Amino acid sequence: MTSPTELAAPAAAVANRRSSERKWGVIRLISPVVLLALWQLGSAVGVISQDVLPAPSLILEAGIELIRNGQLADALQVSGIRVVVGLLLGGLVGVALGTAVGLSRWLEATVDPPMQMIRALPHLGLIPLFILWFGIGELPKVLLVALGVSFPLYLNTFSAIRQVDPKLFETAQVLGFSFWQRFRTIIVPSAAPQVLVGFRQSLAIAWLTLIVAEQINADKGIGFLINNARDFLRIDIIIFGLIVYALLGIGTDAIVRMLERRALRYRT
Fold it and tell me: Which chain regions cross the lipid bilayer (predicted)?
């Protein structure tokens, strides 16, 4: 028979672990605040030059200025559309090709080598070529995002399908499952975790690609705000624009992680 002391020991261990997690969580929240305070203090006493790195308060004022005059909202709308369209296009291509190559040895032999060759190219280095091919409008920016997004999803989808437990396929064959039954009940649930990891990687690459793409021949978007601020030596707006890019990346990644926990809750 289990004694009360033996029952209390696991509960105490769980409580200690939760307390430790809360402690480290508080430290993670405090450390950026301390950094900002030191930055503000260094600017106030003149250790940090305002011409090199404006104080956080000045950057905040610049952001409020952009919010009040509506420039930030317009820029967010344009940049958001570019990322969403690029994600949809590149995501569909990456997942479709990864699925096809993962399911077919013949396609792996014929499609995968060219894909790996293209993947080895720095896609941001293709900007001059994309401008010559597609002009300086929205199309080259969206296609650059799509190109950068497609490869993480392609590789993760392909790898996830090839790592599905063969015993599951053997069981499905014994049960007489059709191809679509195997795909729906075995392949999709087994590959979903790794595909979602690829989607998170693609999101990071999408925002990184957009930062570079919007620096070239852009007349709207967050990149345009940054370029325009550079011409007027507004370092505060430049830094605020970079912070917006970072917050968008973190925010979209958090959304995907939330969807991942919801979609894969059966694993817990």
Answer: 26-48, 83-106, 118-136, 232-256
Q: Which of 232, 198, 234, 230 lies closest to 95, judged by CA?
A: 198
What is the tens place of the pLDDT at every residue in 209-239? 888 888 777 778 888 888 888 888 888 899 9
Backbone angles phi, psi at 122, to 5 degrees: -70, 110
Residue pair 155/201 in contact by the 8 Å Cβ criterion: no
pLDDT digits (tens, 9 = 90+) for 51-95: 778 888 888 998 999 999 888 999 899 888 999 999 999 999 999
Q: Are the C-beta atoms of residues 155 and 168 closer than 8 Å to each other?
A: no
In 3D, which of 89, 91, 97 has the Cα closest to residue 139?
Answer: 89
What is the dihedral angle through the alpha carbons of 95, 206, 250, 65, rounded to the nearest 10 degrees?
Answer: -150
Angstrom distance (rounded) from CA 183 to CA 165? 13
E strand spans, the chain:
none
- Superfamily of 56-264 according to CATH: MetI-like (1.10.3720.10)
Cβ atoms of 147 and 94 within 8 Å: the answer is no
Give pLDDT, residue 173: 79
Look at residue 89 in the predicted model and tell me its pLDDT: 95
Measured from the Cβ of residue 107, the count of other Cβ atoms closer than 10 Å reads 15
124 or 101: whose pLDDT is higher? 101
C-beta of residue 212 within 8 angstroms of C-beta of residue 147? no
Query: Where do the structural domains in the chain lie, given as residue ranges?
Result: 56-264
pLDDT of 7 > 70? The answer is no
